[in-house]
């Protein structure tokens, strides 16, 4: 029951009922009555409404308070938080667009549940395992740091910390996790097993490629894109250095002195 005050008599308004994801369940127009009068507006609950509920606990069964429960459906996002006893409940409308639930708490590995509004709504106990922090260092074949973003598979949404060039610290990760970085469309990865708190992710050497233009001097060029350096083994010792692109982009280009 909601009571609305301080509206001008005769003013037109609407009462809307939304679920916890912001989906409109009912919408009724009304006219503000005269001073001293009351008007009741009835909003009917749809039959596709489901009460999603559960409890967030540690591995030992103790409740986790203020765990974030993030609801995602298409472009819609909404968060609620667990109570002191770890309990939570949200009201959602069943629809063709499934609702995903992400459960997060600092110091714990995040958990996901799919299509939480598709069943009875009873999720039971969601147990979060203690997470760990892993530092990943991105270097080239010579061991020099490379300014690339290394991400953990399945946990890209976590708030990470950049400690320097190619140096990243990721919290709240599981015991086994894979890190990866992309170079010119190719993926390079490294695993961090249980008990390992720092790993090195090696990638090929990266260079800027310069493509000559007709209206520029012969020793000039314009930056084309990043590419991994792959020297052609069949080139003669005195031939200009050549490289190939990933993905291949026609004939190799000459690397101009810089």
Q: Which descriptors apply to this entry?
A:
258 residues; mainly beta; four-stranded antiparallel sheet; four-stranded mixed sheet; 20 strands; elongated; disordered C terminus
Summed up:
The protein is built from no helices and 20 strands. With 258 residues, the protein is an all-beta fold. The strands form seven sheets. Strands 5-4-7-8 form a four-stranded antiparallel sheet, with no helix packed on it.
The profile of the biggest β sheet is:
4 strands, antiparallel
Q: Low-confidence runs (pLDDT<50, min 5 residues)?
A: 220-258
Cα gyration radius (Å): 29 Å
- Shape call: elongated
Coarse structural class: mainly beta
Into which percentage range does the β-strand content fall?
35-45%
Mean pLDDT: 80
What topology does this entry show?
Blueprint: E1 12-18, E2 24-31, E3 49-58, E4 68-73, E5 76-81, E6 87-93, E7 100-104, E8 111-113, E9 122-128, E10 132-139, E11 151-152, E12 161-164, E13 167-173, E14 177-183, E15 186-192, E16 198-202, E17 206-211, E18 222-228, E19 242-243, E20 253-254
Parallel strand pairs: 3-9, 10-16
Antiparallel strand pairs: 1-2, 3-6, 4-5, 4-7, 7-8, 10-13, 11-14, 12-13, 14-15, 17-18, 19-20
């Amino acid at each position: 029951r909601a009571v609305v005050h301080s509206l001008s008599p005769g003013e037109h308004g609407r009462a809307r009922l939304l679920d916890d994801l912001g989906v409109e369940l009912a919408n009724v127009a009304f006219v503000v009555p005269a001073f001293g009068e009351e008007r009741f507006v009835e909003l009917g609950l749809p039959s596709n409404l489901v009460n999603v509920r559960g409890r967030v606990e540690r591995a030992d069964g103790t409740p986790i308070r203020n765990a974030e429960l993030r609801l995602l459906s298409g472009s819609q996002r909404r968060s609620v938080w667990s109570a002191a006893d770890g309990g939570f409940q949200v009201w959602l409308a069943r629809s063709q667009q499934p609702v995903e639930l992400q459960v997060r708490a600092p110091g714990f590995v995040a958990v996901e549940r799919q299509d939480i509004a598709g069943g009875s709504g009873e999720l039971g106990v969601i147990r979060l395992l203690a997470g760990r922090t892993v530092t990943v260092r991105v270097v080239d074949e010579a061991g020099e740091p490379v300014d690339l973003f290394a991400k953990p598979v399945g946990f890209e949404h976590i708030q990470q910390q950049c400690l320097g060039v190619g140096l990243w610290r990721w919290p709240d990760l599981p015991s086994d996790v894979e890190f990866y970085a992309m170079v010119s469309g190719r993926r390079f990865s490294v695993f961090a097993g249980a008990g390992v708190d720092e790993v090195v992710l090696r990638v090929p050497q990266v260079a800027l490629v310069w493509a000559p233009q007709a209206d520029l001097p012969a020793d000039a060029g314009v930056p084309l894109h990043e590419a991994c350096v792959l020297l052609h083994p069949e080139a003669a010792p005195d031939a200009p250095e050549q490289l190939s692109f990933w993905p291949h982009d026609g004939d190799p280009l000459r690397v101009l002195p810089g």
